[in-house]
Amino acid sequence: MHQEMLEAIIRATPETPAYAGKTVLVSGSSSQIGLNIIGIAIARGARVIGLYHKTPIAFVHPRLTWLRADLTAPGLPAVPPADILIHTAAIWLLPQSLPGFVSAGIKRIVVFGSTSIFGKRDSADAAERAVVERLAMAETELSRMAAEKDLRLTILRPTMIYGMGLDGNITRMARMIRKFHFVPICHPGEGLRQPVQAWDLAEAALAVWDNPTTYGRAYNLGGGDTIPYRAMVERLFRHLGKKPRLVMLPFLPQALDLLNAFLPSLHVNGEVARRMNRHLAFDNEPAAEDFGYRPRGFLAGDVIL
Questions:
Q1: Are 14 and 43 in contact (CB under 8 A)?
Q2: pLDDT over 90 for what percent of the chain?
Q3: Which string of DSSP letters, residue by residue, matches 60-74?
Q4: Tell me: the pLDDT tens digits for 48-83?
Q5: What contacts 283, CB < 8 A, 6 or more positions away?
Q6: Taking the CA of residue 294 as centre, how many other CA atoms within 13 Å lie in the half-sphere pointing to its CB?
Q7: Residue 24 CA: distances (Å) to CA of 70, 82, 172, 187, 268
Q8: What percent helix, strand, coil does the chain show, rounded to 5?
Q9: Got the DSSP string for 99-168?
Q10: Nearest residue to 12 via CA among 37, 40, 50, 32
């Protein structure tokens, strides 16, 4: 599946020599953003080194090298020199691996965090708060290390990522619609959302590459539309060719809390429903001003769900 995705991304990207002679090192190669970065960079003439944990993607290109690296383990295997590291794996995996990348001569680093650092900060769920703490600690540590080692660091914090059929938000909801033909909503479902396509995030990471304005800065990146949760779900129904069927359940948070207590492996909790009525929208303007960030609207273009 990942092989077909890479092939499709390269076909959809106009070939240019924009990055000819440059090398991009991508961690988290099998992620939605990582796949897009690899495909776009190849189409624009770059040499790409894709890090993978266990199984490489069965895709071959003369300017693509696969390199196995376990970022969860201490130390890092020798990596070839590169002009930039774009880290799309979990941000908290990077601090312990950063010295290895620096030893390879990498000075430019773009790393993806998450707006969950704000949206889940006051969550009643301990696991979610733990994730927020890891995000915050990683950002702080990376900023400290970048200043100490004179690295050019940019942090990108996406909102709700989708577009490649690999996410647990929009794609998961699409599967529910196809299977059950309805979606439960915590009434009234008016919290604002900005779903953002992985393609647009990959473009953002490449756009900041040689932009000094972005060095040492962090940007929140949402999609092109800011819409209420309920309207987002209704638009997804229509995109799938189905009549919207939303079941409004004011007690949904309590029901999900109970479900989580008995089946924690489902990874759902009442906070998911409570956030349906919380605004989780962020300002794209700083990114627009600094590097021309112009994301597409929700479900615009070709998306995989």
A1: yes
A2: 90
A3: --TTEEEEE--TTSS
A4: 999 999 888 999 999 999 999 999 888 788 899 999
A5: 220
A6: 1
A7: 18, 6, 31, 46, 36
A8: 40, 15, 40
A9: HHHHHTT--EEEEE--THHHHTTT-S-HHHHHHHHHHHHHHHHHHHHHHHHT-EEEEEEESSEESBS--S
A10: 40
pLDDT in tens, 77-102: 889 999 999 999 999 999 999 999 99
The DSSP output letter for 196 is E
The residue count of the chain comes to 305
Amino acid at 46: A
* Residue range 137-186, pLDDT digits in tens: 999 999 999 999 999 999 999 999 999 999 999 999 999 999 999 999 99
Please state whether beta strands 64-68 and 227-228 pair in parallel, antiparallel, or not at all (unpaired): unpaired
**Residue 100 · residue 76 · CB < 8 Å:** yes
Do β-strands 192-193 and 227-228 pair in parallel, antiparallel, or remain unpaired? antiparallel
